[in-house]
Amino acid sequence: MSIEVKVPVLPESVSDAIIAGWHKKPGDPVRRDENLVDLETDKVVLEVPAPVDGVLKEILRPTGETVTSEELIAVIEEGASAPAPTPAASAPAAAAAPAASGSSQAAGEPSPSARRVMAEHGIEGQTIEGTGRGGRVTKEDAVKAASQPAAKSGGSSEIAKVAGTSLAMQGQRAEQRVPMTRLRARIAERMMQSKNSTAMLTSFNEINMQPVMDVRKKYVEAFEKAHGVRLGFMSFFVRAATEALKLHPIVNASVDGNDIIYHAYQDIGIAVSTEKGLVVPVLRNTDALSLADVEQSIGQFARQAREGGIGIEDLQGGTFTITNGGVFGSLFSTPIINPPQSAILGMHAIKERAVVENGQVVSRPMMYVALSYDHRIIDGKDAVLFLVAVKNFLEDPVRLLLHL
Predict the structure, then answer these.
(1) N-terminal to C-terminal alpha carbon distance within the chain
(2) Taking a C-beta distance cutoff of 8 angstroms, is the pair 122, 166 a contact?
(3) Strands across the sheet with 17-22, in order?
(4) Which of 201, 277, 291, 329 has a C-alpha 20 to 30 A away from that of 7?
């Protein structure tokens, strides 16, 4: 019985997708829920699993083509078995059978995140020795393989694999042209949209992080033991930003034509860097989240984003965004607003600096913070007062508990 494989129903905000790569070819056996193909949208990479056990009978849309919701892309013959192996191949197949039967993943099969790394660097799966469970190739295995020196060819020419494209490196002045991924193109589009559609202005302040660092130092072990996650800085910033947004709701608002939409809730996006670009998963109703809830959610989103398992629904919406360039060493920056939001808070690196307290010059761990905002609806006073509120909450964390 022939079973159709179709593109999943895409959200309204995603009009189409590109077939990034097939993991099976016609005639290959497939197992139910085994990933057949990766679809790259302008937000995330989606995996399309096999609906039944059988054999992949036909691929109707090859790699690189654009597809839409519920479009037919392949056909599986349910219950069929792969052609019998040739005598030369029967011995290796028999030897491999026990390993495959002991795990739901075949030995040496790359994980989704590993496949993406391999595709970007033009690496064949057979050349990587997997260290994962059952010999599965992990993302770390693929990254390690990609970091190895490229193979030599023809003595003076070096073949470099970049985004699946071979480039002969001749001398010191080689060039390469690589098309943007859908995600990178979408990021570029949204950055230009933000630049061209908002009257963006940025205000700055600085925060003495010593009180927060003292709290973390005192409770980090007990917190991790109780909640199974480390206590980081981002949860404090999410809580501080949430309280500041409640005090200054215009910073949490958005523009729709000639109207201002005020949101009676706080949905805060957290910018996460991945190999393919920046994604912003959203924490919903942060007013109801504890520090532990925030840390657990951020950790889960970060893992999913980097492994390609984050859902489109996790990236939609949001009334405000926080981005942390400090993890890469940024000392000062002007973050770009994420439309249709009206403001974004930028965190930066913590540096020991000389400050004056009670007439004395002392050393303190200081962080510059930046608020980029849409000056069409947010006045400078509101932006400054918002930053002052964030500063006050973080320099006296007890205020977050007492809602002061």
Answers:
(1) 66
(2) yes
(3) 45-49, 35-40, 17-22, 66-67
(4) 277
Mean pLDDT (the chain) is 80
Q: 234-289, pLDDT tens digit by residue? A: 999 999 999 999 999 999 999 998 999 999 999 999 988 777 667 788 999 999 99
List 379, 382, 396, 403, catalytic entry: 379
Query: CA-CA distance, 103 to 105, in Å (whole number)?
Result: 5
49-56: average pLDDT = 88
Q: Within its chain, how far is the Cα of 259 from the centroid?
A: 32
All residues at 6 or more sequence positions from 22 whose CB lies less than 8 Å from its CB, including other chains: 36, 37, 59, 62, 63
**Could you confirm whether 375 is annotated as catalytic?**
yes
SS (H, E, C) the chain: CEEEEECCCCCCCCCCEEEEEECCCCCCEECCCCEEEEEECCCCEEEEECCCCEEEEEECCCCCCEECCCCEEEEEEECCCCCCCCHHHHHHHHHHHHHHHCCCCCCCCECHHHHHHHHHHCCCHHHCCCCCHHHCECHHHHHHHHCCCCCEECCCEEEEEECCEEEEECCCCCCCCCCCCHHHHHHHHHHHHHHHHCCEEEEEEEEECHHHHHHHHHHHHHHHHHHCCCCCHHHHHHHHHHHHHHHCHHHHCEEECCEEECCCCCCEEECEEECCEEECCEECCHHHCCHHHHHHHHHHHHHHHHHCCCCHHHHCCCCEEEEEHHHHCCCCCCCCCCCCECEEEEECCEEEEEEEECCEEEEEEEEEEEEEEECCCCCHHHHHHHHHHHHHHHHCCHHHHHCC
- Which comes out higher in pLDDT, residue 32 or 193? 32
This prediction has a pTM of: 0.64
Known active-site residue 214:
no
